[in-house]
Amino acid sequence: MTKMLHRFSFLVCLLVIINTVCAREFVVGGSRGWTVPSDDQLYNQWAEKSRFQISDSLLFVYQQNQDSVLQVTRDAYDSCNTEEPTAKFTDGHTSFKLDRSGPYYFISGNPENCHKNQKLVIIVMADRSSTKTTTTSSPPPSPSVESSPSPTYTGTFEITPAPSQDTPGNTASPSSSSFVLPSAFIVTLFLSLFS
Asked: Measured between alpha carbons, how far is 61 from 64 in angstroms, rounded to an integer?
């Protein structure tokens, strides 16, 4: 009986660890989707309550012929400038993969909607999983009189087909492709423990 309890405890711990590693898909705006919000800070309040990791994705659901999603710079976000987006999505069901840590800025492709606060800032947490150790130290930077502006990240984007089923509310669901392999591993491990 004790051996069985240890195996079960090991399996539960393993499930918890693997679940935290799996990428999640967040539905922007929940059941309402990507629309003009009724509350001025709706999207950013929602984003502040979530912890975004590298490999998670955002699902934007909107009327294909009436709206779009633009990934933009911070300046374009602040001014609702739709002229030079980093990326533009018009398919009505956009899945955007978060492939780096740091801020991401999104606005509606309709400037009028953007001015009505249909815009979103996402902050992706730094990847703390790798343990890099630096054995050499570099000299401190030399002082400069004039600081140069930070480079603008143009980034890459990936559009992947989203699942046909509805994702409920503001919850994040494990991405099916990132969940299959860990699940198969767990089942195989579980069966090997009891055989």
From this structure: 9
Q: Tell me the C-alpha distance between 11 and 187, whole Å.
A: 10
pLDDT digits (tens, 9 = 90+) for 118-147: 999 999 998 776 544 444 444 555 444 443
- pTM, full prediction: 0.59
How many whole angstroms separate alpha carbon 177 and alpha carbon 23?
9
35: tokens are 């629309």
CA distances from 54 to 17, 23, 34, 112, 185 (A): 16, 8, 22, 31, 22
Show the DSSP H helices in 22-92 as ranges: 42-48, 74-79
| Dist CA 146 CA 148 (whole Å) | 7
Token output for 154: 């143009």
Residues forming beta bridges with residue 58, ordered by sequence position: 26, 96
Residue 49: both structure tokens together? 């309550």
Other CB atoms within 10 Å distance of the CB of residue 116 = 16
Coil, helix or strand at residue 153: coil
Which element (helix H / strand E) includes 97? strand 93-97
